[in-house]
Amino acid sequence: MALLDSAFAFLYQLGDAFAFLVLAACGLAVVFGMMGVINLAHGEFIMCGAYVTVATTRAGLPLPLGILAGSLVAGAIGMALERLVIRHLYGRPLDTIVATWGVSLAATQGTLIFLGSSMPGVGTPLGSFSLGSYSYSTYRVVLMLAALGVLAGLYLAFNATRFGTLARATIQVPHMAEALGVDTRKVYALTFGIGAALAGLTGGLYAPTMTIVPTMGTTFIMEAFVTVVVGGADIFLGTAPAALVLGAVRAVLTSWQGQLYGQIGLLVAVILVIRVLPLGISGLILRERA
Predict the structure, then answer these.
(1) What is the third-level CATH fold of 2-289?
(2) Res. 197: pLDDT tops 90
(3) Helix axes 42-58, 2-28, angle to 10 degrees
(4) Quick check: helix, strand or coil at residue 36?
(5) What is the pLDDT of residues 142-188, one digit of tens each?
(6) What transmembrane ranges does the database entry give (predicted)?
(7) What are phi and psi of 251, to 5 degrees?
């Protein structure tokens, strides 16, 4: 019985780490993996989603609608940012680093000045359940299901819809798409907006579990980037396996030696994977298919 309890505890921890990495990385995977834009303001879109979710929920809106509001607001701000800043920097990755870093600093400091150093939270809903001698948060299971739902939704959006076809064509061969009558500027704006909305969704989903502060985006940004880099260029093939591998490494080391060793092991695993697979996990899968 003790062995079954320990096995379930490990699987729960693995699922929790997997959900965190997938949700943190999906928005960045769209913006960085598909569009080639290095968005250092990704964490601030997550922060935006969290703040809007908490504010609307405390104003009386149900939590699911608050999360949706956070996602939509972050997506709208992302489209505005693409129109005003990012659109002029395509094909200039170093410039996008500087520009989005500036946006990140402005967003963090602006939030600190106007909204203060923290915001009262809403509490984690749904309570907990017990199995054996351990107790588990039910809401964490919801986050695991949400991560799977986001992956499925992204796959369908970019592989089974007209917009997905236009987006992939625009990103891969923009001049040909434009010659065929595709409004590439609109496609770029919508794609960047989807990435920002996914970041806002992540912030909204994790808002009940975290302290709401202007710098909360830094909790997500490192894990998001390493997951996308390990996954490789194809976000649909690489993001989920990368999150599973990195989540397993973190879960094993965290359960063995604690949180710090789990974080260190995650970074070491990233270095090893990049050294062995410079094109990421999706590059290996595509090479095997070929």
Answers:
(1) ABC transporter involved in vitamin B12 uptake, BtuC (1.10.3470)
(2) yes
(3) 110
(4) coil
(5) 999 999 999 999 989 988 898 888 888 887 788 888 888 888 889 99
(6) 17-38, 67-86, 98-119, 139-158, 187-208, 220-253, 265-286
(7) -65, -40
